[in-house]
Amino acid sequence: MSISWPSKKDQQDDIIFGSTKEEMCKAFEELMHKKFKMSSMGELTFFLGLQVKQKSDGIFINQSKYVASMLQKFGMSYAKPTSTPMETHKHLTADVEGEEVDFHNYRSMIGSLMYLTASRPDIMFAVCVCARYQAKESHLHAVKRIFKYLKGQPTLGLWYPNDSSFDLVAYTDSDYGGANLDRKSTSGGCQFLGGRLVSWQCKKQTTISQSTTEAEYITASHCCSQVLWIQNQMLDYGLSFLQTPIYIDNNSLKVHTHDQFADLFTKAFDVGRFTFLVTSFGGRGTEKYGKRRENVKNAQSQSSSLLAIAKIQVWRRQIRQVRNPGFDQRALRREKAVWRSRNGL
């Protein structure tokens, strides 16, 4: 439920409240009406740019309207979609000799994308990397790639099923010296309540680590702080998570996890691994929520199939080059287009 009331200078304040019992919501609403002058907005469907769809089997949250307005604002409504928000083979640098672009427009694009990360963890790493640099042409190209990815996935959001378990689990990971400007490492982490993603982080570390172990320990400490905060919040609801596992993928720490979901916040991936991670987070489009829910193993097998198809296409192109060095480039582009349409890329 959501309610709003007027404040000073013709502004409006909004609050949301909820309960597992409808009669308690009605009682609280009546109490607030007696104390304050306000209006009830009914069942929560939209709040601070977040679209909320409540179903019998779960809740779906996305920002598709915000994405559409953002694409129109920056002239990217007709851009060609991409399958990932960031290139894997090309890393951003300071590009001191690069051509400068409009600084205000660049920062406006970054700010708009930062607000979108409230429901889109899939673009968080790419946005954070672009925010570290000034407005050069190469940096603007990287930001536009994120918009092209959003063009292809405008309705992607987070699905929170109501039949999932309720155990607090955390994942954390770090790269080593990934920032080209100062060689600082990037910390990434995420926390789940059962199969529901409730918190995620991506931040450049404040100090320069001397080893991968040091970088991982710093990241683990940040993740532990977040877990402690969530534990304290859950105590208010009578839930205790004093024994919360934190999965760290590092050889020196001797702790490993095959499905390291925190990788999404520390590095760029190809389309196969990226699709697997996004699906594991509960990310899906508007047209898919409430339907059959694929588990992590199905998502991994699907991503493996995409990688296998991609490898076959590469081998075919290599064989054609050997047999006929002067083969038609237009035929190759047509072949790529057919493969992308078949695999929904």
From TrEMBL:
<dbReference type="Pfam" id="PF07727">
    <property type="entry name" value="RVT_2"/>
</dbReference>
<feature type="domain" description="Reverse transcriptase Ty1/copia-type">
    <location>
        <begin position="13"/>
        <end position="87"/>
    </location>
</feature>
<dbReference type="InterPro" id="IPR013103">
    <property type="entry name" value="RVT_2"/>
</dbReference>
<dbReference type="InterPro" id="IPR043502">
    <property type="entry name" value="DNA/RNA_pol_sf"/>
</dbReference>
<protein>
    <recommendedName>
        <fullName>Reverse transcriptase Ty1/copia-type domain-containing protein</fullName>
    </recommendedName>
</protein>
